[in-house]
Amino acid sequence: xxxxxAIHGGAGTIPHNSLTPExxxxxxxGLHAALDEGLGRLMAGQTALDAVEAAVMALEDxxxxxxGRGAVFNDQGFVELEAAIMDGPMRRAGSVTGVRRVRNPxxxxxxxMEQTPHVTLGFDAADALAERLGLPAADxxxxxxxxxxxxLQTELARLAAGGSDAEVSEQVKHGTVGAVxxxxxxxxxxxxxxxxxTAKMAGRIGDTPVIGAGxxxxxxxxxxxxxxxxxxxxxxxxxxxASRIRYLGQPLIDACDxxxxxxxxxxxxxxxxxxxxxxxxxxxxxxxxxxxxAAVNAEGERFVGIYR
Length: 308
Ligand code: ASP
Description:
By secondary structure, this protein is α+β, with helices and mostly antiparallel strands. The chain has a single domain (4-307), classed as (Glycosyl)asparaginase (Glutamine Phosphoribosylpyrophosphate, subunit 1, domain 1, 4-Layer Sandwich). The chain contains ten helices and twelve strands. The protein has helices spanning 21-43, 48-61, 105-115, 123-132, 140-143, 146-160, 170-173, 229-234, 237-248, 252-266; strands at 4-8, 81-87, 92-99, 120-122, 177-182, 188-194, 215-217, 221-227, 271-277, 282-283, 290-296, 302-307. The chain has an eight-stranded mixed sheet. It has a four-stranded antiparallel sheet with strand order 7-8-9-10. Strand 2 (81-87) and strand 3 (92-99) form a beta hairpin. Helix 1 packs antiparallel against helix 2. The model has no long low-confidence stretch (mean pLDDT 95). Residues 10-12, 174-176, 194, 196-197, 206-208, 214, 226-227, 229 line the site of aspartic acid.
């Protein structure tokens, strides 16, 4: 049976002309490493669920990406992390929002799926659950990165000067990590994790933990999104891809393109998504300048890219 995996590190890329070769190399290395975490599990015959969790954890641990360590700050100056995971075959799902202490929110999302009767938990109660389950925690220093702090100050100053949320560049606002995979048993899974948007209102919930918006997996397709979360929620973007395949019989590429280049654009939503279907086809569309992304398809071909 074929297996395949794709990952993303967010659609909020640095403009091409200001990306240094060193940073580009570090981003590529981070994407390769995360891809290998997932791929290794698929090659060893583990589940797609294990693969997407492992790949997302690697990206959460890498401060270059907006998730876990390296997450952006909200308008109060602290992180509020969000993550989701979904297991295609039985549509099991777990997600978490507004956590500030758990190191790997995607692990907590999986624990919510597997160890509670609920799908989504949030804020202090979710951090408390992580603690009870013994998931590694970290203090605010662990999540602090100077670059994200500087971005917050710039953004707060811009908003104070009357700037609007709509004008801000993709780079400042976007970023998320995610993975989708098909395993040797033919099962699909998706996972997504994010710090959300720089200077978001404290308590804001984006698309990532909303099952069907930023994250989806069933027996036909697995999808993980990145971009302007409010737009992805309003399009139920990830589920929309699945519906187009299920009810219209669209090929994966067409279903993804119609959501990313059609429905999202219609409401001004920038970003992209990664998707893999039951045959191992992969799509990595985005309508922003770039999207950090990597994949290994069913033929074993590896791809890593940032820009178009
Ligand atoms: N979708 C994320 C959010 O809105 C951010 C991003 O992917 O850029 O929280």
